[in-house]
């Protein structure tokens, strides 16, 4: 039997977002980008690329913080999440475009760094979930994590079976 979408509890897994891992990957990608850009005669592009990756990581950390604070409320609203997301993305995008404009053409590395970070974030988030789904064990915690917080429509929280 399948639960209708409107009756299903909200599940916010603490699974996949690993900021330290993403930071280390970003450092490695920055080093490679700086070497490649240096070989092409523009090492500053690699540095700006790294700044873009770090701006992406900062955005992801702020997303986690805002999701935690909004979902901790008794009645979380999609509207507050949307406003928060739109304002955060607008600020980071404007900052990246200002850097790109002031330090053009090398400053465009910031925009490319932001774009690549989104790809890294999706890949690093989706792969553990995908692996877990392939093993067929959807109820347990994912890859060393404690478990997901399940919030019902009435705002009550439950724990997954992996928390026992």
Automatic annotation (TrEMBL):
Segments crossing the lipid bilayer: 20-40, 46-64, 85-103, 109-130
Topology term for the membrane: Multi-pass membrane protein
Region feature (Disordered): 138-164
Name of the protein in its database record: ATP synthase subunit I
GO cellular component, as recorded: plasma membrane
Keywords linked to the UniProt accession: Cell membrane, Membrane, Transmembrane, Transmembrane helix
Keyword set includes Mitochondrion: no
Subcellular location: Cell membrane
UniProt source species: Mycobacterium gordonae
Top-rank taxon: Bacteria
Coiled coil: none
């Amino acid at each position: 039997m399948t639960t209708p979408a409107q009756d299903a509890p909200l599940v916010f897994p603490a699974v996949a977002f690993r900021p330290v891992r993403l930071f280390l990957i970003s450092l490695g990608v920055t080093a490679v980008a700086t070497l490649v850009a240096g070989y092409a005669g523009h090492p500053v592009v690699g540095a700006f690329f790294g700044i873009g990756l770090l701006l992406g990581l900062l955005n992801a950390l702020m997303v986690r913080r805002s999701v935690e604070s909004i979902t901790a409320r008794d009645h979380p609203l999609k509207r507050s999440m949307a406003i928060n997301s739109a304002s955060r993305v607008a600020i980071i995008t404007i900052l990246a475009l200002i850097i790109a404009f002031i330090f053009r053409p090398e400053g465009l590395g910031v925009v490319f760094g932001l774009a690549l970070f989104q790809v890294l974030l999706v890949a690093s988030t989706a792969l553990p979930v995908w692996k877990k789904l392939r093993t067929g064990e959807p109820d347990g915690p994912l890859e060393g994590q404690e478990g997901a917080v399940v919030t019902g429509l009435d705002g009550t929280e439950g724990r997954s079976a992996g928390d026992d």
